[in-house]
Design a protein that fits this description.
Helix content is 21%, strand content 13%. It is α/β, with parallel strands linked by helices. The radius of gyration is 13 Å and the shape is globular.
């Protein structure tokens, strides 16, 4: 199964510097659209707008 990952605010650099981020299965964000077509293990790290709310807080409000 292909995976997409995103980080919490302030955690992007450590996440991208991790051994998993440097693994050969990492797909560039510009190639993310192809992720469902790739053989596992394949994953992409998505950058974007982040909410200052905690995930726990967002789930509690749902």
């Amino acid at each position: 199964m292909a995976r997409a990952a995103s980080s919490a605010p302030g955690c992007t650099f450590p996440a991208m510097a991790s051994p998993a981020a440097q693994a050969r299965w990492h797909v560039r964000e510009s190639e993310a659209a192809a992720l469902p077509l790739l053989r596992p293990p394949a994953w992409v790290f998505l950058h974007g707008l982040k909410s200052p709310l905690s995930s726990t807080q967002l789930r509690a409000q749902a």
